[in-house]
């Protein structure tokens, strides 16, 4: 944990050289750890290139606009204009807007952020610029291998790592202490503790997200994976959502509401925020959510559970292993960009250790560079994030397929029906049949 961030160098793959920019980067790292963020000035002789950057809106103390402004002011060769997309909680809308822009082949946006599950789709469509000529295999060793794998399609690097996230279990330490319960490792343990811990202001035992949206698929991956099951086989073609392991996992999701009664039926219309708010208000023993929840739980102005929350891997079925759904947005470059050198220069800026540290400190976005994750700077600014390394590295991806958007919509629809009707096996069989047709083309 005593590792300090060093000024990182990227392979120069564009006409805009990085060495001038990286001079003085050690000072930037120190400033980022305290929340300040300054960049050394760069001066280029080349004429200014105009590029656009589209990203989902991430909520934080400082906005993406400020980061872009600092890049623009650090040099005179490139000017970036920002296009703000909806937040990640509106993933379907973000995806639709990116598809429309990239499919037009107008060249805008030049650089974009994308959910990790869209990488195969965008690459297969020819919309994402292959990046191997700009980033060597040695360059990519700086990042967590699983994220690099997620940025690769058909053996080609077509996206670049930005940040990683995964689902995890938030729990009330004070309540578990009061009832004499340990942090649950199995779902049976969680159900028992949740039932015992409910009462008074703690109206709920376990909160998760059941809204017919992308977050339902994320929860599904964790439940099914925790029973040793999967949605697709590793070949990306064999559909396993109707296998016994998956059926039992969805049955458990249903049972938390209807049998064990530790989860309110309201979760069937909840995504991340509606499920987070009751937890930080002190109304639930457990919550499945993303890492951003930690900071909100420690905010004395809005949270009733400051210093009362712990975090652990999600539980698993007896004899199986915990499974967390891999999340996070990654960078891409538009294959139709008319300013590829400028786009790559901006991408490399976004990917430096200094900028990753800035995103981690100010926005709570876990870095994908291993040296940043292990740095003393991050440990000082956000020790909680460093404690999640093993959770992030072991996370499971959602189905990897160019047809993921269609697959996801089927899963959202049929799993939602299963949770509302109780016809688990019938709904999952229908999902399998529909996904088989999608993958068959």
Short description:
The protein has 441 residues and is an alpha/beta fold. The chain has helices spanning 19-22, 25-33, 64-74, 91-103, 119-124, 137-140, 145-150, 173-179, 187-197, 214-225, 244-258, 272-280, 293-297, 340-350, 353-363, 370-373, 376-381, 383-387, 389-393, 404-421, 424-440; strands spanning 49-56, 78-85, 111-115, 152-153, 156-157, 163-166, 168-172, 204-207, 284-289, 309-312, 326-327, 329-333, 366-367. Helices cover 43% and strands 13% of the residues.
Structure characterization notes:
The chain is α/β, with parallel strands linked by helices. It folds into 2 domains: 19-165 and 327-393, Periplasmic binding protein-like II (D-Maltodextrin-Binding Protein, domain 2, 3-Layer(aba) Sandwich); 168-323 and 403-440, 3-Layer(aba) Sandwich (D-Maltodextrin-Binding Protein, domain 2), CATH 3.40.190. Helix content is 43%, strand content 13%. The chain contains 21 helices and 13 strands. The strands form 4 sheets. It has a 4-stranded mixed sheet. Strands 8-9-7-10 form a 4-stranded mixed sheet, with helices on both faces. Strands 11-6-13 form a 3-stranded antiparallel sheet. Strand 4 (152-153) and strand 5 (156-157) form a beta hairpin. Helix 2 runs parallel beside helix 15 (353-363) and helix 11 crosses helix 20 (404-421). Residues 6-45 have low confidence and may be disordered.
As laid out across the biggest beta sheet, the strand order is 2-1-3-12
Average pLDDT works out at 88
CATH architectural label of the largest domain: 3-Layer(aba) Sandwich
Total separate domains: 2
Helical segment count: 21
The assigned structural class equals alpha/beta
> Given the C-alpha coordinates, what overall shape results?
globular
> Which CATH class of the largest domain is shown?
Alpha Beta
| Helical content (DSSP H or I, runs of 4+) | 40-55%
Low-confidence stretches: 6-45
């Amino acid at each position: 944990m005593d590792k300090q961030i060093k000024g990182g160098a990227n392979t120069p793959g564009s006409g805009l050289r990085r060495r001038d920019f990286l001079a003085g980067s050690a000072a930037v790292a120190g400033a980022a750890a305290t929340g300040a963020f300054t960049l050394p000035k760069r001066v280029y002789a080349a004429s200014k290139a105009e590029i656009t950057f589209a990203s989902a809106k991430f909520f934080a103390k400082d906005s993406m606009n400020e980061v872009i402004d600092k890049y623009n002011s650090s040099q005179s060769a490139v000017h970036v204009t920002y296009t703000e997309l909806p937040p990640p909680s509106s993933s379907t809308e973000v995806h639709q807007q990116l598809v429309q822009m990239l499919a037009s082949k107008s060249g805008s946006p030049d650089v974009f952020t994308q959910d990790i599950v869209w990488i195969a789709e965008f690459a297969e469509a020819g919309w994402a610029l292959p990046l191997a000529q700009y980033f060597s295999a040695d360059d990519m060793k700086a990042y967590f291998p699983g994220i690099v794998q997620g940025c690769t399609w058909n053996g080609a690097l077509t996206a670049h790592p930005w940040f990683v996230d995964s689902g995890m279990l938030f729990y009330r330490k004070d309540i578990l202490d009061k009832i004499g319960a340990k942090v649950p490792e199995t779902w049976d343990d969680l159900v028992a503790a949740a039932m015992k811990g409910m009462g008074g202001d703690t109206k709920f035992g376990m909160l998760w997200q059941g809204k017919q949206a992308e977050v339902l698929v994320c929860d599904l991956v964790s439940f099914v994976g925790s029973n040793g099951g999967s949605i697709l086989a590793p070949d990306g073609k064999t559909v396993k959502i109707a296998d016994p392991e998956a059926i039992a996992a969805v049955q458990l999701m249903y049972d938390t509401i209807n049998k064990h009664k530790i989860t309110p039926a309201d979760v069937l219309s909840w995504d991340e925020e509606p499920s987070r708010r009751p937890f930080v208000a002190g109304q639930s023993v457990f919550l499945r959510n993303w890492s951003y929840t930690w900071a909100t739980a420690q905010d004395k102005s809005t949270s009733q559970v400051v210093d009362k929350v712990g975090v652990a891997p999600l539980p698993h079925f007896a004899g199986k292993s915990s499974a967390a759904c891999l999340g996070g947005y990654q960078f891409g470059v538009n294959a139709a960009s008319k300013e590829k050198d400028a786009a790559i220069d901006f991408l490399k800026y976004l990917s430096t250790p200094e900028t990753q540290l800035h995103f981690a400190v100010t926005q709570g976005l876990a870095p994908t560079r291993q040296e940043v994750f292990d740095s003393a700077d991050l440990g000082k600014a956000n020790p909680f994030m460093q404690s999640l390394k093993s959770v992030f590295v072991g996370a499971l991806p959602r189905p990897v397929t160019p047809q993921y958007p269609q697959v996801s919509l089927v899963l959202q629809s049929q799993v939602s029906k299963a949770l509302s009707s109780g016809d688990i096996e019938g709904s999952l069989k229908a999902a399998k049949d529909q996904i088989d047709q999608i993958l068959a083309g």
